[in-house]
Design brief:
The strands form six sheets. A nine-stranded mixed beta sheet has the order 10-11-9-8-7-6-5-2-14, with helices on both faces. It has helices at 3-10, 32-40, 75-95, 116-129, 149-157, 172-178, 184-196, 215-228, 259-275, 292-298, 339-347, 361-376, 381-387, 392-397, 400-407, 428-433, and strands at 13-14, 47-54, 56-57, 69-70, 100-108, 131-142, 162-168, 201-208, 232-237, 279-281, 285-287, 303-305, 308-310, 316-320, 325-328, 331-335, 353-358, 378-380, 411-414, 417-420, 447-448. The protein has 450 residues and is of the alpha/beta class. The chain contains 16 helices and 21 strands.
Length: 450
């Protein structure tokens, strides 16, 4: 696409649309009592996914936008693990039966800072409280710098099937600027050890738009990663929001690439990965051709949730841990963000829900439209609107933003079907935003579109 359009649209701050509405619109009107009611109303034959948040790292990466803190001692982690087990038990008792679980994701922070025995105990409790399907995907995020052989054994014992390794960049200048020095050899050793333990699904995370980053450094990192042949890549643009994330204040904004450079870096990484045989999945994922995510995209079954693109087709996501977000048919819930507050609530035998959002009929309509745009780079509005009792023409004419995107050639419209132009796919968040009725009140909280 024209670089001026990419830069112009790309400067806008927009949600990543891992939910709709997004977290800035959650309110304290949804609390523990509402969450308990929603849990008790989960349909008898529903399948659930579980997300467990471990908000600790051994050191802080300055680019990080996650809810996490540095734990140099093991005691705070052990105390938190105890609270996690309490919450798993609390939620399971509210549901009142062992519901089926198809996906489990441990996110952070760095979940592998847990003691190996504690991790296997936690997995054991989950299997006791829920029916974890034999084919369930159990995924965990890993910092290769701190992964031990004992922890690899614990992951294998716990049934982990997928590991997501943070890489970001192998350029030593960039690594020093973001306080994450990680060698290629450390990453390769972690990958080899995980595969030897039987954990075959390997993801690498990369970031563009980092301080001092160039196209050449991006391509060198991709080249080295491809040597290790992970199944999937996730490629994200660095979101510089120092007002909200204090560690990002250690990064001088003068070191950051401008919008044009960010766009060129994103394109260069995407091109290099595709040349290496990976298929682009939605906005920011890439996978080998035989991966289940590729089949899901091809067949129109790809979904998007708080972990990004997924093959998970369920509509119940139970979040555990400080700041964790859950999704149920009625809406969203989020736990206490502060670790001490979270531990206090679950330690007292109470659900830690601090805010959430109850979906309206209009929210459900827009959520489905936005998810299809994010997953398929297009959508036929008519069948979706029919299902929700709405008019497709009204949705199309109500958005001035959409008219501009059509005029600029970013989107093609035929009848009630719209498609993002192939050379404008990096702007899929911009297209999705055309159907976001809540956008104008939360722009300052989001990252750049490119």
């Amino acid at each position: 696409m024209r670089s001026d359009l990419a830069v112009g649209y790309g400067q806008e701050r927009l949600p990543r649309y891992t939910s709709y509405p997004t977290a800035p619109h959650f309110s304290a009107a949804i609390g523990p009592n509402t969450y308990a009611e929603w849990l008790q109303a989960i349909p008898p034959h529903a399948s659930a996914s579980l997300y467990l948040h471990v908000p600790f790292c051994r050191s802080m990466c300055w680019y990080c936008g996650c809810h996490t803190s540095v734990a140099r001692r093991d005691e705070p982690i052990a105390l938190y693990e105890s609270a996690l087990r309490c919450e798993v038990d609390l939620v399971a008792r509210q549901i009142g039966r062992r519901i089926n679980v198809e996906h489990i994701h441990f996110g952070g922070g760095t979940p592998t800072v847990m003691a190996p025995d504690s991790f296997t105990d936690l997995i054991g409790l989950i299997r006791h409280c829920f029916f974890v399907a034999p084919t369930a995907e159990i995924a965990i995020e890993i910092d290769p710098r701190t992964l031990t052989a004992v922890m690899v054994d614990a992951l294998a014992l716990g049934g982990v099937t997928r590991a997501s390794l943070g890489v970001q960049s192998f350029d030593p200048v960039i690594q020093r600027a973001i306080n994450r020095v990680q060698s290629f050899e450390e990453t390769a050793a972690a990958t080899t050890n995980l595969r030897r333990a039987g954990i075959r699904g390997i993801n690498f995370d990369l970031i563009y738009g980092l301080p001092h980053q160039t196209i050449a450094s991006c391509l060198d990192t991709v080249r080295r990663c491809v040597e290790l042949r992970p199944d999937r890549f996730s490629v994200f643009g660095y979101a510089h929001v120092p007002t909200f994330k204090k560690y990002q204040r250690k990064i001088d904004e003068a070191w950051l690439p401008d919008s044009s450079e960010r766009y060129e870096q994103a394109c260069a990484i995407a091109d290099a990965l595709q040349q290496a045989g990976y298929v682009q999945i939605g906005l920011d994922h890439f996978a080998l051709p035989d991966d289940a995510m590729v089949a899901a995209q091809r067949e129109g079954r790809l979904r998007r949730n708080f972990q990004g693109y997924t093959t998970d087709t369920g509509n119940v996501l139970l979040g555990f841990g400080a700041s964790a977000i859950g999704q149920l048919p009625q809406g969203y819930v989020q736990n206490e963000v502060q670790i001490s507050a979270y531990e206090g609530e679950v330690g007292a035998g109470r659900l830690a829900t601090v805010k959430g959002y109850a979906l309206s009929a209009d929210d459900r309509l827009r959520a489905e439209i936005i998810e299809r745009i994010m997953c398929d780079f297009g959508v036929d509005l008519d069948p979706i609107c029919v299902r929700h009792g709405a008019e497709a023409e009204a949705m199309l004419t109500a958005s001035p933003r959409l008219k501009d995107l059509i005029s600029d050639g970013v989107v093609a419209l035929e009848g009630t079907s719209l498609a993002v132009a192939d050379n404008s796919r990096f702007l899929v968040r911009t297209v999705a935003a055309a159907f976001d009725a809540h956008l104008d009140t939360s722009k300052q909280l989001h990252s750049r579109a490119v």
